[in-house]
Design brief:
- By secondary structure, this protein is of the alpha/beta class.
- It has an eight-stranded parallel beta sheet with strand order 6-5-4-3-2-1-8-7.
- The mean pLDDT is 94.
- The protein has one domain: TIM Barrel (Alpha-Beta Barrel).
- It has nine helices and eight strands.
- Helix content is 38%, strand content 13%.
Length: 284
C-alpha cells in the first residue's frame, strides 16, 4: 500500500464477547462480517479482526480464537485487506491461510515463532509496543522516557522481523497507546510521535476511544469520538500513516480532509465562489 501521500484507516471488528468498546456487539459471526463490509463501504483501507482482547481476562484456548477469527477473515478477504489482531503464531498461520494479509501483534513479536510464520505466509506485520504478557495484569508502568524506550523496543523488534525474513516494506510500527501505559504516557507518545515516524517503517496509531482520551476529557467510552479524532489528526500531522478506528466513517472523512489540506487530494467538487460573474454563489 502506497502511504507517502495517503492516510489509511484500519477498521476494527472485534469478535469477542468482552471487547472494551462495543461490549460484544460484533461477537456473532453475521454481525462481525456485516461490520467489516460496512467498513468497506465507509472507506476503510483494511479491517482488523480480533478474537481475544489484550487486556487481562480468563485464558481463551487457541482453537477458540481460531474459530472466532477465521470465518470472518475468509468472508472479508475478497473485499478488503484483512488484518488479524493476535499474539499467537497458530492463529496468525490459520488467518493467513484464510486470506489475511496483515498480522497485528500487540506483543510486538513476543511469540518466538510469530515472525517465522508471518515471513513464511508473506504477510505484513504491525509491531506494537507493550510490556505485559497478554491477558495478564502488568504492574504499574514506569518509564524514564517513554518515547525513547518505546522507540528502542520498536527498533529491536523491527530488526527481529527483518532477521526472520519479513520484507522491510511489510513492517508497520505501533507505539501502543494505553498498552501498559498510563494517560500521561500516552499523551507524551502522541505529543512526540514525530520521534517515532522516522524509525524506518510506517507508523500506525490506535487511539480510537482509548482510556487516555476518556481520562483527558472526562468522557465515557461512547462519548470519545471528538477526542479520538483530534488525537488521530495530531498523529498523522507528525507522520503517522495508518489510523486504527472504531468510528470508520468519521475517521475516514477526517483523514480525507487532512489529505486535502496537505495538497494530496483534490476536493470532491468545486462550486463555492467559482460560478461566472453575475451568478454568484449565494453562500459567498
Amino acid at each position: 500500500m502506497e502511504l507517502s501521500r495517503r492516510l489509511a484507516v484500519m477498521a476494527i471488528v472485534n469478535r469477542t464477547p468482552d471487547s472494551f468498546y462495543d461490549r460484544g456487539a460484533t461477537f456473532a459471526l453475521d454481525a462481525a462480517v456485516a461490520a467489516g463490509l460496512a467498513a468497506v463501504e465507509e472507506g476503510a483501507a483494511m479491517v482488523d479482526v480480533g478474537g481475544v482482547k489484550f487486556a487481562p481476562g480468563e485464558p481463551v484456548p487457541v482453537d477458540v480464537e481460531i474459530a472466532r477469527v477465521v470465518p470472518v477473515v475468509r468472508a472479508l478477504a475478497p473485499a478488503i485487506a484483512v488484518s488479524v489482531d493476535t499474539f499467537r503464531h497458530e492463529v496468525a498461520r490459520a488467518a493467513i491461510e484464510a486470506g489475511a494479509s496483515i498480522v497485528n501483534d500487540t506483543t510486538g513479536l513476543g511469540d518466538p515463532r510469530m515472525a517465522e510464520v508471518i515471513a513464511e505466509g508473506g504477510a505484513s506485520v504491525v509491531i506494537a509496543h507493550s510490556l505485559a504478557e497478554p491477558r495478564t495484569q502488568h504492574p504499574r508502568p514506569q518509564y524514564d522516557d517513554v518515547v525513547a524506550e518505546v522507540a528502542g523496543f520498536l527498533v529491536e523488534r523491527r530488526e527481529r522481523a527483518l532477521a526472520h525474513g519479513i520484507a522491510p516494506e511489510r513492517i508497520i510500527l505501533d507505539p501502543g497507546h494505553d498498552l501498559n501505559k498510563n494517560t500521561r504516557h500516552s499523551l507524551e507518545l502522541t505529543r512526540r510521535l514525530g520521534e517515532l515516524t522516522g524509525l524506518g517503517a510506517p507508523v500506525l496509531v490506535a487511539v480510537s476511544n482509548k482510556d487516555f482520551v476518556g481520562e483527558t476529557l472526562d468522557r465515557e467510552r461512547g462519548d470519545r469520538l471528538p477526542g479520538s479524532l483530534a488525537a488521530a489528526v495530531y498523529c498523522v500531522l507528525q507522520g503517522a500513516r495508518i489510523v486504527r478506528a472504531h468510528n470508520v466513517r468519521e475517521t475516514v472523512e477526517a483523514m480525507r480532509m487532512v489529505e486535502a489540506i496537505l495538497g494530496w487530494r483534490e476536493p470532491a467538487f468545486l462550486l463555492h465562489n467559482t460560478r461566472p460573474e453575475g451568478n454568484a454563489d449565494a453562500h459567498a
